[in-house]
Amino acid sequence: MNIIIYLEYFSFRRAPFQITTDEDFLYLSKQHSKAMAYMDYAVSQQGGFVIITGEIGSGKTILLKRMIRRFNKKATCINLSFTNLDGEELFQYVAEEAGIDVINESKVGLIFSLKKYFFDRLKSGKPSVLIIDESQNLSSENLEDLRMLAGLEVKDRPLLRVVMLGQPEFMVSVNRSEQLKQRVKLHYHLSGLNEVEVSKYIDHRLMIAGSDGSDIFPADVVKVIYQYSRGIPRLINKICDALLLCAFIEERKYTLRSDIDEVSGDLMISKPSEVLPSDIMDSNKCLNLNGIISESDSIDRVVYALESINKNLEKLANSLNVKEEVS
User: Would 285 be classed as within a structural domain?
Assistant: First the structure.
C-alpha cells in the first residue's frame, strides 16, 4: 500500500504517528516539561549527575535530541548512544565522540587527554556535557569510570556535566554505589501519560501533521487507546497508526474502538485485561521513583507522612471532644 495515498486520504502533510523519534512532534506534558527542566539544569550547573528514567518508549530520547539542539551553541555536547562497553572502551568512546586525537591510549593517558579537552572547552565558554542514553546497560566498571570523569577538577572547578537517561532498572545500579549516588543532583522518572494527556498528545501530533483531527479519534476510541497503551507515547503511536490504516482500508474518516481489539495481536500489544498483576506492581513502583534515590529516603518519607496523618487525626479528635463538651 502506498503511504502517500494514506496521507492524502486524511489530508496529512506528514505521517503523524511514526515510531521513529521526530523532535518536531514533541509533546511537552507536565512530566516531560519537568524532565527537560532538569536536563537544562544539568547543562547550566557545574558538576554532578542528572538522571532521567522511564519505560521504553516514554519519550526520553526525544527530550535528549531537543536538549542537544537547544544547547549545541552554548555547550559541548558529547552524546553516547551505545553503552555495551568493556574496560577502557568508555574513555575511548568519549574521546572519539569529542574528536580528540589521543596519543597515549592507556587509561591514564585517556584520562589526561579528556581532562585537558574539558578544561580547554570550559575556558572557551562552552562547558562539556556528557549525555548518555540507555544507561541501564552500563557495567559497574563503566559507572565507576563515569564517576571518575565527573570528578575531574581544575582549581576546584568541575570540568564535566553529566546527563544520564535509562530504563527504571538503572536506579538499582545507582543505588549500589554510595559514591555515585551522592553525585546525583536530580532524578526524575517519566511514567505514562494520563487519559487527558493522551487525548492532547494525539491532537498535538495530528495538528503538526496538518489536520485538526477533531473527528478522527472520538473520545471513546481515545479512552481505549489510553487503556491499551498505558500512556506510553510509542505505544500510542503504534495503535493510532494502525487505526488510521484500518479506517483508510474501510474508507472511513474516523476510527473505531472495535478495531483496537482486532489489531492488538498484530501490534503485539496486550489487552488491558491481560496485564499481569506483577506488571501493575512494577508500574506503581515506577510512579514512586521520582525524587527517591535510596530505599532509606523512601522509608523516611513514609514515616514522615504517617506522623503527619497521626497529628491531623489527633487535632480532629481534640476538636470533636471540645465540641462534645460544649454541647
Answer: no
In this structure, is residue 185 part of a structural domain? yes
Q: What is the pLDDT along the chain (327 residues), one digit of tens a residue?
A: 445 577 989 999 999 999 888 889 999 999 999 999 999 998 888 877 999 999 999 999 999 999 999 998 899 999 998 888 887 789 999 999 999 887 777 888 899 999 999 999 999 999 999 999 999 999 999 999 999 999 899 988 899 999 999 999 999 999 998 988 888 999 999 999 999 999 999 999 999 999 876 789 999 999 999 999 999 999 999 999 999 999 999 999 999 999 998 888 888 887 776 554 444 434 444 444 444 333 434 434 433 443 444 444 444 445 444 444 444
Residue 311 included in any domain: yes
Distances (CA, A) of 281 to 129, 208, 278, 284: 35, 35, 5, 5
Q: 132 forms bridges with which residues in the sheet?
A: 80, 164
Round to whole Å and give the CA distance between 58 and 233.
6
Instruction: Look at residue 271 and give its three-state secondary structure.
Output: coil
Q: For residue 50, give the 3-state DSSP assignment.
A: strand
Name the packing angle between helices 140-150 and 107-123 (round to 10°): 40
What is the rounded CA–CA span in Å between residue 261 and residue 221?
11
Do 101 and 156 share a structural domain? yes
Examine the domain organization and report whether 102 and 150 are in the same domain.
Answer: yes
Domain count, the chain: 3
Integer-rounded Cα radius of gyration of the chain: 24
Q: Which pairing describes strands 157-158 and 153-154: parallel, antiparallel, or unpaired?
A: antiparallel
Q: What is the reported pTM? A: 0.79
With contact defined as beta carbons under 8 Å apart, do 181 and 174 qualify?
yes
* Contact call for residues 43 and 79 (beta carbons, < 8 A): no
- What's the number of CA atoms in the CB half-sphere (13 Å) around residue 179? 9
CATH code, 199: 1.10.8
Rounded to 5 degrees, φ, ψ at 257 are -65, -30
